[in-house]
Amino acid sequence: MTALAWVIAVVALAVAAIAIVALRRSREVVEVAPAVEQPAIGPEVDALSAAFDALPMTAVLVGPASEVDRINPAALRAFPFLRTGVGVLEAFGDHMLASRVRDALASGEDDDFELKLFVEGRRTFRVQVVPFVVDGARGAVMTLQDATQAVAYQDLRSQFVANVSHELRTPLTGLRGMLEALEDPDLPPDMRADFVSRSRFETERLEALIDDILFLSELEAAQGDPSGERSDMGAVAHGVVDELQGEAAEQGVRLEVDAHDGLWTALTDRMAHTVVRNLAENAVRYAGTGSIATVRVQRAGADVQVEVQDDGLGIPEKDVPHVFERFYRADPSRSRRLGGTGLGLSIVKHIAERLGGSASVTSREGFGTIVTVTIPAARPPVTDVPGDAGMGSGARLRW
Ligand code: ADP
Q1: Beta-carbon neighbour count of residue 8 at 10 Å?
Q2: Is beta strand 111-118 parallel, antiparallel or unpaired with respect to 358-364?
Q3: Which CATH number covers residue 97?
Q4: From the CB of 286, is ligand 1 less than 6 Å away?
Q5: pTM for the whole structure
Q6: Cβ atoms of 59 and 78 closer than 8 Å
């Protein structure tokens, strides 16, 4: 939850508590007050009632015997089965919630905790219980805020940190072992040369991993479109295929390109290059010797479609739905051996979705793979501005 959301929640809670205390007081006053005084009290009660009803989170007024006295409309929207006049246990069907409310009423101390409830599936709520006393009787205001997304995001972050640590540890452990071996003056020269080259490979893998993690976090931090940027996906495809010809030859894969220039998107050069390169590199790495891989860029309605197709080994059916997840590899040892970070496709998907596009994969083991990325087409850059080095040149590399 952001700081602003916390402030809003605290202010809302304070308003609720004040509203309810005042509401109860004024109700009692209304009951005992002579009729002539009612008009002066009425508007205040109305305003406080309205304030309670307007609270954006589920707000419940609990009476001294832990019964639900009053609920606001947000509560009914979130919990359509809620009703007044029953105990908290009956109202929410949760023993932990009922006992925490009872304890707060008994002790007079605020409580704040997370709770999982079954409402349209299992959802996590942040519950705050604030007891108050009016004329010797204790009541409490209880608010529930749906924290399912925040908790899921937190879990994802923790998982990501654990994965990153694991991914960093593996090459580091290898490096350390090899450095220790290299300290041995009696190490045969051929083994020494092998360890040095493997150490270099592990260092490069670490570099690639750190670059990918940083890029991913830059992508997450950046908001909205990288407006004003333009990249010609056709030209980028030709460039990437040229770059990868050496690696394709090493892997025994024929890499072809089917694209013409002038297929513009609002990606930065780095993003465009990353999208095409990650897809083409995967085809080169995983299709297998004797395969043909084609990088195709074409217009598809209002979009530009980048499609990399190979007739190689394909992806096992059980892995296909997961390949866009961070650090997911269908063939971990092959990926690591060839310098893969497990982040390539998740970065591609992130980039495409940031511009309102999408990424998908179709694959069949033994038949091949097609990865398709769709990105909204953009108007070509304005080229008639004299001295505008930013259009179509490398001068606007930002990411
Ligand atoms: P990596 O760095 O491991 O390549 P990616 O996110 O780019 O990570 O890809 C995830 C996994 O998807 C790869 O490890 C690989 O197992 C599988 N994969 C991706 N593209 C292909 C392809 N063209 N053919 C077969 N498997 C592929």
Answers
A1: 14
A2: unpaired
A3: 3.30.450.20
A4: yes
A5: 0.70
A6: no
Collect all residues with Cβ–Cβ distance below 8 Å to 285 and sequence separation of at least 6. Answer: 247, 251, 334, 335, 338, 340
Residues 160 and 49 in one domain: no
Residue 103 CA, chain-centre distance (Å), reads 37
Task: Give the separation between CA 306 and CA 359, rounded to whole angstroms.
Answer: 9
**Ligand 1 test: best mutation among 247, 323, 325, 370, most atoms within 8 Å of CB?**
323
Which residue has the CA at smallest separation from atom 14 of ligand 1? 329
In sequence order, the 6+-apart residues with CB closer than 8 A to the CB of 340 are 285, 329, 334
Q: What is the DSSP letter of 380?
A: P
> At which of 146, 169, 202 does a domain end?
146
Which helix (H) or strand (E) is 46 found in, with range?
helix 38-54
First to last CA, the chain: 28
- Per-residue pLDDT tens for 67-113? 999 999 999 999 999 999 999 999 999 999 999 999 999 999 999 99
Q: Which residue in 346, 219, 232 sits closest to 278, CA to CA?
A: 346
241 and 214 within one domain: no
Centroid of ligand 1 to alpha carbon of 24 (angstroms): 64
